[in-house]
């Protein structure tokens, strides 16, 4: 069923989705195997592959991240935020990964990552909770 939906997409969308899926799997595997600092350096280096003009709008890139995350085991908020950051940076969009924490009413610790475009426009990882930002 999902293969049929993929085949119904135009070629440009199929290419974007395939690129995004492979990038997300690469990031997922890196976060499982390597220290976060190495993964962070990878996506900072990857930002040097910028194109001169944007081929995709922001909504299309976010769509590719959300759809690809269905097919990646444990595609956490951090995996999606890093994938989105790389895709957006390669298309010359300025975005920032933010990481925050909170304690719930039972004193359980919780962390979350999200991606913002411009200032405070959350495009990947929007949630209702108020996190205290640690990294941005």
Hey, roughly how much beta strand do the residues contain? 15-25%
Radius of gyration: 15 Å
Q: What is the arithmetic mean of pLDDT?
A: 87
The helix content, as a percent range, equals: 40-55%
Question: How many distinct beta strands?
Answer: 4
Description:
This protein is of the alpha+beta class and 136 residues long. 49% of the residues lie in helices and 19% in strands. It has one domain (2-135). It is built from five helices and four strands, in the order H-H-H-H-H-E-E-E-E. It has a four-stranded antiparallel sheet with strand order 3-2-1-4. A hairpin with a 5-residue loop joins strand 1 and strand 2 (109-117). The longest helix is centred in the first third of the chain and has 23 residues, at 11-33. The mean pLDDT is 87.
Brief descriptors of the model:
single chain; 136 residues; four-stranded antiparallel beta sheet
Give the structure's gist in a few sentences.
With 136 residues, the protein is of the alpha+beta class.
What is the topological layout?
Blueprint: H1 2-8, H2 11-33, H3 36-46, H4 58-69, H5 77-90, E1 95-103, E2 109-117, E3 121-124, E4 132-135
Antiparallel strand pairs: 1-2, 1-4, 2-3
Helix pairs in contact: 2-4, 2-5, 3-5, 4-5
């Amino acid at each position: 069923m999902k293969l049929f939906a993929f085949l119904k997409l135009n070629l440009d969308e199929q290419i974007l989705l395939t690129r995004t899926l492979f990038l997300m799997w690469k990031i997922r595997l890196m976060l499982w195997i390597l220290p976060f600092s190495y993964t962070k350096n990878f996506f900072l280096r990857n930002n040097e592959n910028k194109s001169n003009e944007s081929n995709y709008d922001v909504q299309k890139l976010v769509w590719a991240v959300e759809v690809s995350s269905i097919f990646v085991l444990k595609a956490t908020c951090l995996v999606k935020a890093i994938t989105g950051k790389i895709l957006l940076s390669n298309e010359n969009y300025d975005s920032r990964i933010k990481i925050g924490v909170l304690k719930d009413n039972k004193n359980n610790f919780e962390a979350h990552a999200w991606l913002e475009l411009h200032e405070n426009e959350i495009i990947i990882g929007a949630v209702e909770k108020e996190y205290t930002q640690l990294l941005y």
